[in-house]
């Protein structure tokens, strides 16, 4: 059982011992720390926070604890109940709230839950803000409201419809264009809130929907991370139903993966590539993804005469770089689409609408669309080291070894070669170096990873 405290929130497994797992006491403590943080920012103001959750079994319990804690601190709560991460992100500024909390452990299995924390713009907190909240939680020095000053709870169950309307109102989304394509789509909602909102969006777009695992009961029918090895059922159903494509989301609906009509994965890395291709074709500009994402985004961006920039891993870092670069679209290679025209957060609803627009306009099969993009293959490995080894020193030695190559050190060490790259990052919690590579073939990607790992081991010995 595990409890992970990070700048982006608190994540852990339900049950067990306080401080070692996400117990009710831990949920209350970190909710209080967040409330204290907001109060410090705006002392004397009547504060408001938006809260929503995915369909995890523990979600209602954790939401009751978190909501009651904030109310006890004199903070008003807007309760969206079952929701998605991007829906809460959109609701915070619309409600003129001071922050938001999403109760979800994203792609983690059902025994996990988490408090993801937002600012008044509906964006994730930065590192300094996260550190402040962790410090407040450590001190446990909280002040609660007197009885006449308790916060109020307001339930608002309209935000799925509001979110869908926001997507339909985007200038680059045309309902009639998608409806005329007469798409038939299988949706895997992994028995979470994507099973509610994704079919609803697709039906609004005139798409025929076949639902798979769309009952929001929190009993995930497979590992909820949308990777090929977990998606056998939808891959088979797409072929059996003669569907045009399959759509897969994670439990909080900020990651998006597509299945081609032949039952093959489109590739999570290529979700952003395709959406960017569509957006850049209509609104030329710049793009951003993190250092561990596919080079294909850079290739597509340059094809459209834009500039690609890499950011450190983490959504908050990608968003910061997107603002600095004035990117028209960006995101992460895990299927996370960030489209500023909507909001600065990963959004599977927005990504789905953009992808369907591209497919409708090109009038091609999903498999043929995938073949039209540069083809790269990734290898993702890790090296476990002994605790006494200085990981930073090893990465510095690797940087020196490859000083003649194009190196980036904003997040670990990334080395770009002519036709491939390797990204080495240390873990913040254990003596591990993650080694990600990409190359024109799987064999080349694996070979590069193995070579670099051997070099790291030699430096560590």
Task: Give a brief rundown of this model.
Helix content is 38%, strand content 22%. It is of the alpha/beta class and 461 residues long.
Question: Can you walk through the features of this model?
Answer:
The chain is an alpha/beta fold and 461 residues long. The protein folds into three domains: 3-157, Alpha-D-Glucose-1,6-Bisphosphate, Chain A, domain 3, CATH 3.40.120; 163-371, Alpha-D-Glucose-1,6-Bisphosphate, Chain A, domain 3, CATH 3.40.120.10; 377-460, 2-Layer Sandwich (TATA-Binding Protein), CATH 3.30.310.50. It is 38% helix and 22% strand. The protein has 15 helices and 20 strands. The protein has helices spanning 24-41, 59-72, 85-94, 127-139, 159-168, 175-180, 194-204, 232-240, 268-282, 296-303, 315-325, 348-362, 366-371, 391-401, 442-460; strands at 3-6, 9-13, 48-53, 76-82, 99-103, 112-118, 153-155, 184-188, 208-212, 245-249, 256-259, 286-290, 308-311, 327-332, 336-338, 377-384, 406-408, 413-416, 421-426, 432-439. A seven-stranded mixed sheet has the order 1-2-6-5-3-4-7, sandwiched between helices. Strands 16-20-19-18-17 form a five-stranded antiparallel sheet, covered by helices on one side. A hairpin with a 6-residue loop joins strand 10 (245-249) and strand 11 (256-259). Helix 1 (24-41) packs across helix 2 and helix 1 packs across helix 4. The chain starts with a strand and ends with a helix. The mean pLDDT is 95. Belongs to the phosphohexose mutase family. Keywords: Isomerase, Magnesium, Metal-binding, Phosphoprotein. This is Phosphoglucosamine mutase. Pfam families: PGM_PMM_I (PF02878), PGM_PMM_II (PF02879), PGM_PMM_III (PF02880), PGM_PMM_IV (PF00408).
């Amino acid at each position: 059982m595990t409890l992970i405290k990070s700048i982006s929130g608190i994540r852990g497994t339900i049950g067990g011992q306080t401080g070692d797992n996400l117990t009710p006491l831990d949920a209350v403590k970190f909710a209080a720390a967040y409330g204290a943080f907001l109060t410090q920012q705006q002392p004397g103001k009547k504060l408001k926070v938006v809260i929503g959750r995915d369909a995890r079994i523990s979600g209602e319990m954790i939401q009751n604890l978190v909501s009651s804690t904030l109310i006890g601190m004199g903070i008003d709560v807007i309760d969206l109940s079952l929701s998605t991460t991007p829906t809460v992100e959109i609701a915070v500024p619309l409600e003129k709230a001071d922050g938001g909390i999403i109760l979800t452990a994203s792609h983690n299995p059902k025994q996990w839950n988490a408090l993801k924390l937002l600012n008044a713009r509906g964006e994730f907190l930065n590192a300094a803000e996260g550190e402040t909240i962790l410090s407040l939680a450590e001190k446990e020095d909280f002040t609660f409201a007197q009885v006449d000053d308790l916060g109020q709870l307001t339930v608002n169950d309209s935000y799925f419809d509001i979110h869908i309307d926001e997507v339909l109102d985007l200038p680059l989304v045309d309902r009639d264009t998608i409806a005329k394509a007469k798409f038939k789509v299988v949706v895997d909602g992994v028995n979470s809130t994507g099973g509610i909102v994704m079919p609803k969006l697709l039906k609004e777009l005139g798409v025929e929907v076949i639902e798979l695992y769309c009952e929001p009961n929190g009993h995930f029918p497979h590992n909820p991370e949308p990777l090929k090895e977990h998606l056998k059922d939808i891959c088979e159903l797409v072929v059996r139903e003669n569907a045009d494509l399959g759509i897969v989301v994670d439990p909080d609906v900020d990651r998006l993966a597509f299945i081609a009509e032949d039952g093959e994965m489109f590739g999570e890395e290529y979700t952003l590539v395709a959406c960017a291709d569509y957006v850049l074709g209509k609104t030329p500009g710049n793009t951003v993804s993190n250092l561990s994402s596919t080079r294909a985004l850079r290739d597509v961006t340059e094809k459209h005469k834009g500039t690609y920039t890499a950011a450190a891993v983490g959504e908050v870092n990608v968003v910061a770089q997107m603002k600095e670069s004035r990117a028209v679209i960006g995101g992460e290679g895990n299927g996370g689409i960030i489209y500023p025209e909507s909001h600065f957060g990963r959004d599977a609803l927005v990504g789905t609408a953009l992808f369907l627009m591209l497919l409708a306009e090109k009038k091609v099969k999903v498999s043929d669309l995938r073949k039209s993009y540069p083809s790269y293959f990734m290898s993702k490995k890790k090296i476990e080291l002994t605790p006494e080894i200085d990981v930073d020193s090893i990465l510095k030695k690797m940087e020196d070894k490859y000083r003649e190559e194009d190196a980036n050190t904003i997040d670990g060490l990334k080395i770009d070669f002519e036709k491939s790259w390797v990204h080495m990052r240390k873990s913040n919690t254990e003596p591990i170096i993650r080694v990600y590579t990409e190359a024109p073939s799987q064999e080349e990607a694996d070979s590069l990873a193995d070579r670099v790992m051997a070099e790291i081991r030699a430096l560590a010995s």
